[in-house]
Amino acid sequence: MKQRALLLVNRHARHGQQRIAAAIEQLQQLDLELLEKPIEHPRQLPELIRYYRHQVDLVIIGGGDGTLNAAVDALVETRLPLGILPLGTANDLARTLEIPNSLPEACEIIASQKVRWIDLGWVNGKHFFNVASLGLSVQIAQKLTKESKRRWGVLAYAMAAIQVLWQSRPFRAEIRINNQDAIRVKTVQIAVGNGRYYGGGMAVTHDAAIDDRRLDLYSLELRHWWQMIRLLPAMRQGRHTALPGVRTLHGQKIRISTRKPRPINTDGEITAYTPAEFRVIPQAVAVLVPEEERGVRSKGFSG
């Protein structure tokens, strides 16, 4: 029996418009029945997923991390499996799940029906897949434009970082892990990770996993902007956590407060403000993954 999929493609994602026809043809050849609903803005996703929840067996979303983030709350509610077509700029969730950017391969993974239940992060009522952060990364997100991401791809992140790096100023924050005593820090960035990758391929920590039932926090407590330069190469592998000026913490519940409300970036979009309560939500969403993925605890749709 054919699986029926709700196909939602962000036409404004970096590769959305030019690759949608190829995606439809590929998925149909793989014996999936598609209910296609093109979207003009990611905010349309939750309503569409909820509306068609009883008419489909899975949801396929084409777009980047911001598009996926817009859909996450509805995916939690409906419990529909998620198939990912990585059509965005960074595609960090796909990278974490070892889903390649190759469209034919991504379609094959969706058709294979191998499901992995992954954790989600949660902050002030909003779920996230990858990372929630405040400080430097928020300034970078504010600098990024659709035009720069479309033109430069992942390099747009590095270009935005260079523009804001020398202007960054430390701020004071209070961090509480699992209701323990508060830790007071002076930092330029705090990141709370659920998955492994964010920001175009940087790793939260070298051993972060999206189903380890914990949140990984790092705080960059640097005195000078140029200290960030030596950190950047190490951040690609998550090895920055062993360097001076980097504090690392882990837990299931985290509270961060600041003197003034500060914006929080979740999966590339500003969605919350401090004071902030973070939690890990174990096995919250089912995602279609490669069969050979390491450590996958997978099963078919009907398993």
From TrEMBL:
Report the domain of life of the source organism. Bacteria
The record's InterPro entries line, in alphabetical order, gives: ATP-NAD_kinase_N, Diacylglycerol/lipid_kinase, Diacylglycerol_kinase_cat_dom, Lipid_Phosphate_FormReg, NAD/diacylglycerol_kinase_sf, YegS/DAGK_C
Q: Which GO terms describe its cellular component?
A: plasma membrane
Q: Where does the DAGKc domain start and stop, copy by copy? A: 1-127
Question: Keywords on this record?
Answer: ATP-binding, Kinase, Lipid biosynthesis, Lipid metabolism, Magnesium, Metal-binding, Nucleotide-binding, Phospholipid biosynthesis, Phospholipid metabolism, Transferase
Query: What cofactor does this protein call for?
Result: Mg(2+)
Which GO annotations describe the biological process of this protein?
phospholipid biosynthetic process
Identify one Pfam family in the record. DAGK_cat
Q: Which GO terms describe its molecular function?
A: ATP binding; ATP-dependent diacylglycerol kinase activity; metal ion binding
Q: What PANTHER family does the database record attribute to this sequence?
A: LIPID KINASE YEGS (PTHR12358:SF106), SPHINGOSINE KINASE (PTHR12358)
- Protein family membership: Belongs to the diacylglycerol/lipid kinase family.
Name the chain's protein.
Lipid kinase
* Organism for this UniProt entry: Scytonema millei VB511283
Taxonomy, top ranks, is: Bacteria, Bacillati, Cyanobacteriota, Cyanophyceae, Nostocales
